[in-house]
Structures are given as structure tokens and as C-alpha cells.
Amino acid sequence: MGRTTRTSSTRWRLGRWRTGVAALALATAGGLLAGCSSDGKPTLTWYLNPDGQDTLNAIAQRCSTDDYDIQTRLLPTSATDQRVQLARRLAAEDDTTDLMNLDVAFVSEFANAGWLLQLPDDTISDDTLSGIASTVQWDDGVYAAPLWANTQVLWYRKSLAEQAGLDMSQPVTWKQVIDAADSVDGATVGVQGNKYEAYVVWINALIEGAGGQILSDPEAGKDAEVDLDTEAGKDAAAVIAQLAGSSAAQSDLSVSNEGTALAAMYGGPGEFMVNWTFVYKNYEPSDANDYSKDQFDDLGWARYPQTVAGEASKPPVGGIDVGVGAYTQYPEYAQEAAACITSVENQVQLAVDAGLMPATSSGYDAQELTDAYPADLLDLYRRSIEDAGPRPQSPFWATVSSAIQATWHSPADVDPDTTPEKSQDYVTQVLEGKALL
């Protein structure tokens, strides 16, 4: 948020959705035959998000052994729907949920609920990038294994930046980017503004980049201190309000997502766009798309924009962690499989095939990866993940996120003078059980 990253945004989204729905329909109609395969071996069921689907299926085959087989099942496209489906299964103590791909934002919730097996401490090491390592830890334990680490960078047309007079060799602010796009007729800024988790990813990155945080003590759960009504919250709201009120706002801002933002890069003068690491492979010319070499050569990348001039940005961190279900019939096999699935070798393969970057530093040094990506882009990815501002690791993050979406959406309604205060009051009341979502 497999992802067919070399197609246009429309084909990418529809293809993923149709594939996921078809697979889920078959699983529902036929039932999930977990436990034993046709040859009598135990079968582990691994629930996948649709990203990198073909590569993940191949990993499942490679990590199957003489002792067990691994079968895959697709989850819905959105992280929120993935969470709901897995939570329902685990709340019902489903013993066929052996392995699962979890969005990094939800590991703490699942661990706190007792739905994940605790994994060995050496599941993470000095080789694990710090930005992703923090996402699998809860209450002094490790509850998932990092599979890939995602981050956002600023993608842009080099010709657009030159036309707008924006020096991309230096750190840029959101205001500079919006003003630059505003100065060129037809140029835009692409973001994720729909009412979903990625919109909160943007809000969180803006607040973190201004030196703030959404929750100051997320481990306190429902008693966490909400810190939205702060200068950092107002700085974040000011960026959203500036973009929404400018000619640089894309016409679908309030429903925009990672896929819709792609289309504007080569329309007219182009765009500046914050988006995940898959973008490079999306635009790289191949048999699967019709982008030209000249277009691809015009693609530039830079560090995530600063919220406040002079203060280092805190890029978003996303990705997938692999958890082992607490009710699995085969805990030892499932833990062994999780270790295989998340090996450095498999992380590198996901990066080369699908643009899903490694969760380990050594993965970035692999020859296959350095052959597939420019050195400066790989360095940007790695530094962005290391310097990232993760979303709060709260067992109630889904609730907090939904409450923020309710008060910050639509982007056109965001007001730095009122939105942070209203949002803080509402999130606090929801956590205290005094208001309903």
C-alpha cells in the first residue's frame, strides 16, 4: 500500500482489487483447509496483503520444508480492512491463522490483545533498520519479524523543478514545494488525502517534522496524552490548508490515494508527489507500461519535505511485519517459517521485483539491489527509514487514527486555528469512552 508497480495507476489499482476479491471469494467458498496437506504434512496458512504477491507466493514455496507446507491467502487491499479481517479471526481464536502480514501500525494492538506469539529477541538485530525495528516491539518483547520497510520520498519532474526555479539539491519545505507548483500553470502536488490510514500517515509526518507527536505516551493505551493541539499540530494543519487552497491541489484531493497520485507525473508540466518506494518501478520503462526513457530520465527524487524550514523532516515509515498467530496449531513450525520468510535474501528479492525495500541494512548492500536501483536513491531510502517518524505504537492506534480522520477530513476543511483543538478534544473523548466514532 501483487502491487503491479509497472503499470498506470488505474490498471494497478483495479488489477490488485480484482485479484484480491477473486482469491478471497474462492477461499470463502471452498473453506480454508488448514492443518494437513494432501501428503499428510502440516499446512501453515500465511495471510498476505496484495503487495508483491507473486514474489511472496514464490517465497512461500521456497520456505516450505519436508516438515510443513506454506499456503497463502489474500487479504483485502486497504490496511484498515486487512486489520479488521485478521482481528476477527484472531478474536475468535482461529487456529488456522498461522502467519500474517501486518501493517506496521497494528502490531502493538495485536500484541497487546494477546493475538501474536512472542518471538525470540534476536528476531531483530543491529542489522535491522531502526525505523522498522521499533514497529515490532511491545512491552519489552518482539511480536513480529520485519519483512520490508517502506518510506516516502518526494518524487518530481526535473523539468518542472527547473521551470519553477526550485533548487532540489537542498532540503525543501512543503511551502516551497506548493509555491513552486502553484507558479507553473497546470502543475500539482500529489498526496494521499482520502479518508483512510495514509492520510493520517501524512498528518503524522507533518507533526513529527515540526517537532511534535500525536501521542506523547502511546504505551498508556486509552490513558495516552493527546498532543494535537500544539504548535506542531498547527504547523501541520497550515501545510494541508495551504495545499487545499492553492491551484497546486489536485482535483481529487479529498479522495486521492497512492495510486491516483501517479497519473499526474507526466500530464502537462507534471507534479511534485510524496509517495512510497514502489514509484521508481512504476515509472521504469518495461513491457508492462508505456513510459518512455525520456520520461523516466525526467524523474527526480529528494528527501521528504520539511514542515518547518530548517527542521529536518521526519519521513513516514511503513512496511510489513510478519506475525505468528497465538492460536496456531504449529507454533514452532510457524516461527521457523517466519524467520525464513523474512530472511535478507527474500527481502532483497521483494525489493528487486516489487520495489518493497529491505528492513535490514545489509539488504541494501546486495548486488542484485545495487544493480536494480541508482545508488543515490537507495541511500535516500535507507536514510529516510533510519530518520523516520513512525506512527505512535499504541494498542488503540486504529481508534486514534479513525478519530483523526473524522476531524481532519476533508483537507479543504482543515484550519490551523481550529482543527488541532477540535481533533484533540475528540480523540481524547473517544479514548475515554465519552464519544463514539
From TrEMBL:
PANTHER family with a match to the protein in the record: ABC TRANSPORTER PERIPLASMIC-BINDING PROTEIN YCJN-RELATED, ARABINOSE-BINDING PROTEIN-RELATED
Family (UniProt): Belongs to the bacterial solute-binding protein 1 family.
Keyword Transport: yes
One protein family per Pfam: SBP_bac_1
Keyword Signal: yes
Keywords, comma-separated and alphabetical: Signal, Transport
InterPro entries linked: Bact_solute-bd_prot1, SBP
Protein name (Swiss-Prot/TrEMBL): Extracellular solute-binding protein
Signal peptide: 1-34
